[in-house]
Each structure stands twice: as structure tokens, then as C-alpha cells.
Amino acid sequence: MERIYLDSAASTPVADEVINEMIPYLKQQFGNPSSIHYFGRETNRALQLARKRVADLIGATKPLEITFTSGGTEADNLAIKGTAEYVRIKDPSKNHIITSYVEHDAVLEPCRDLERLGYKVTFLPVTKECLVEPKVLKEAIMSTTALVSIMYANNEVGTIQPVKELARIAHESGALFHTDAVQAAGKISVDVNDLGIDLLSMSSHKINGPKGVGALYIRNGLEIMPIIHGGGQESTMRSGTENVPGIAGFGKACELAKARMTEYENYVSSLRDYFVDKVLSEIPYSRLNGSRTSRLASNAHFTFFGVNGEDLIIKLDESGIAASTGSACSVKKQKPSHVLKAMGFSYEEITGSLRISLSMKNTKEEVDRTVNVLAEVVRELRSLSPFKSKYA
Ligand SMILES: Cc1ncc(COP(=O)(O)O)c(C=O)c1O
């Protein structure tokens, strides 16, 4: 069976160019990048090249503004805990953090942990389209606010937040601004200087790089506390011998993403629009969720009324189609989506949800086959539902 992969927001395949970039550091170039001999210098050079490529993708001025981590989750933890701790040491009254209800758990959980440690955390509500409204941030921000952390683009419904405006409001009150750009960096043009971002999290495996690698951009001159202590690698920001093959691959993935960005956005957004139009016209009682305009090119998120999203995923998988109900990470927790709840969705709207996330590899033929299967599966599941007469 020819399988169709429509879950690129969960992870992506490693590009051939990325694999080729990594191989020398898995074979002959194995030195510790902190060693001063030839082998160490060679791997250190790979780190510096990757740092430059990552910095270039997000418009960072200096490569040293990039700290490599084990992924987006660690980058988020470092940004939030590292900033909170540093700011409170400097000024104990600064113990307030603002985030939103629709963040990834990699942001929500460190914030909750800080709450347990005595920090005050405000979770901002969102609109029905998943947008954090600047006026809501303005009302919540205080002179004690140390950090505002709002994601760049939502991993479930793809909504892109007005980060430039949100960063401006944070700075007006003397707070720092962090954004979790794991779903955005490499897919849309991001310029940290133009946007006024102080800290930005990224992840390699969302952009055809290897898993277990990510980075935190820390604006030049900004100090935060490390959360992993040891030998002082990554300018003391993240101790531990660097994952050289992974980092080299991540750097290459960033270079490729930058070179292909316009082509990616044009191709993927037109395929997504084709998908959405086809679903909405061919499957009754279906609805697109999230923003129509401020949205990632790759994302289509639907509710199919009268259907259970998990059943839908299983049925699609049986036909060789991989999609998702939302965040791959929260599936393990078996909880209804906190994002859709925050968007004000009813239980029925949440359970009937399906996330499709596309990539350059997907084709119109795959979309056609998927919509045919989807229409059939939705019809079948509705016929088994106790509410079948409602959706006949
Ligand atoms: C918005 C967002 N933040 C953080 C993460 C975590 O990134 P990683 O898998 O690299 O730890 C993800 C992963 O899905 C994500 O979508």
C-alpha cells in the first residue's frame, strides 16, 4: 500500500542533503569539539558553521546568539526558567510571567513548575481563531512582569500570533519577550530584529533535520541562567558535549529551509487551499478551524461533526493515511485538546477534530485520494453514531 504522510507538524523526514552533512561527524570526524587538537577543531568548525546557518534563518545578528539544545522542549524550558530565575535574582519583585492557554506543553509545564516555586503566572485567553489579542496582553501586564512567552504559530490549528505587536507591548512595560517558534522557524520568514524578539525556540525535526536537536536564540547582551550545569559548553548556557552530527544536520536543514522558503510557502499553501476547498465542498457538516488569514501554509484543521477524531485517525491509518487529532505529544495524555478548549469549542467540536499538516512532498493526487477516503470514512462513522439522523 502506498502510504500518505500528512503529519509534518509532528515530524518530518530527514532530507538527503542533511544526512550527507551529518555522515562525516558520525564516521571520521568524531572529535570532542572542546578538544584543542585537530579532531576537536574539525568538529568545532562544524558547530560554528551550523550556528551561523541557524542564525541566518531567523535574522540573528551574531551566531553566538544561538545556543544549541536537545530540541524545542529544552529551548522552551531554558528560555522560561532561565529568564525567570535570572530576573528574580536581579530584582526579586519581578516574579510575574505571562503566557497563553494555547501554548505547547513545553511552555505550559515549565510555567506551572514556576508557579509551584512561588512565581505568579497569567495564562491569556484567545479568540475563537486562537489569536492572542494585544489588548488582552496590555491589560495583564504589570511592572512585576519579567517575561511574556507567546508562541509564534500554534501546533494544532496553525494560527500565527501577532508577535511583533505583542513583543512591543512587553517591552513597553520592561518585560522580556520569548516566542516558541518550533512550528514557524523554517516555514515562514522570521526576523528576530525586525520583530523585537529577545528569546526564540526552534526545533530541527520539524524542518527535515534530525530529532533531538534544537536551539534557543538569546539576544546579544541578554543574560539568563542555565538550567543544565556542567562543563560550560555553549558559552556556559548549556553544558554537555554537543551533539555534533545532529547540530551539523540542523544547520544544513536551516540553510535548505531558507533557500526554499518562497517555493515552500507557494506550493504548500496552494495545496492546502485545494485540500480545504475540496473537504468543505464534498463532506457535509465539516468546518475549518483557526484563522483563514493568519495561518501556517501547511496547516488545515477541521471539525467533522458527529464523528470521533480518534476513530477517524485509526480508519485513515488503515487506508494508509497518516494524520493527527492535534499535538502528537498530548495524545499520550489522552486529554481533550487544551487548545480547542481555550478557543471555546464544545465537546462535540473538540472530539470531531482532525489536523492535516502538509509538506513539499505531498501532491494533488494524494490530496484527492485522502479526501475520497475521508468522505467515505466520515459517512461510515456517522452511520454508526447514535446521532446519525442529525448528519444524514
Ligand atoms: C509548538 C511546539 N513547541 C515545542 C515542541 C517540542 O519540540 P521538540 O519535539 O523538539 O522537543 C513542539 C513539538 O511538537 C511544538 O509543536
Structural class, by secondary structure, is alpha/beta
CATH class of the largest domain: Alpha Beta
Backbone CA Rg: 22 Å
The main sheet comes to:
7 strands, mixed
Unreliable spans: none
- CATH topology of the largest domain: the name is Aspartate Aminotransferase, domain 2
What compounds are bound to the protein? pyridoxal-5'-phosphate
Strand order of the largest sheet: 2-8-7-6-5-3-4
CATH superfamily of the largest domain: Type I PLP-dependent aspartate aminotransferase-like (Major domain)
User: What is the total domain count?
Assistant: 2
Shape: globular
The ordered H/E elements are: EHHEHEHEHEHEHEEHEEHEHHHEH
The residue-averaged pLDDT reads 96
Helicity, as a percent range: 40-55%
Number of DSSP E strands: 12
Q: Work out the helix count.
A: 13
Distance, first to last CA = 31 Å
**SS strand fraction:** 5-15%
CATH architecture of the largest domain: 3-Layer(aba) Sandwich
List keywords for this structure.
392 residues; alpha/beta; Aspartate Aminotransferase, domain 1; Aspartate Aminotransferase, domain 2; seven-stranded mixed β-sheet; three-stranded antiparallel β-sheet; 43% helix; 13% strand; binds pyridoxal-5'-phosphate
Kindly describe this structure.
- This protein is an alpha/beta fold and about 400 residues long.
- It has two domains: about 5-10 and about 260-390, Alpha-Beta Complex (Aspartate Aminotransferase, domain 1); about 15-255, Type I PLP-dependent aspartate aminotransferase-like (Major domain) (Aspartate Aminotransferase, domain 2, 3-Layer(aba) Sandwich).
- Helices cover about 45% and strands about 15% of the residues.
- It has 13 helices and twelve strands.
- A seven-stranded mixed β-sheet has the order 2-8-7-6-5-3-4, with helices on both faces. Strands 9-10-12 form a three-stranded antiparallel β-sheet. The chain has a two-stranded parallel ribbon with strand order 1-11.
- Helix 6 (about 165-170) links the parallel strand 5 and strand 6.
- The longest helix is centred in the last third of the chain and has 39 residues, at about 245-280.
- The two termini are about 30 Å apart.
- Pyridoxal-5'-phosphate binds near residues 71, 72, 73, 104 and 203.
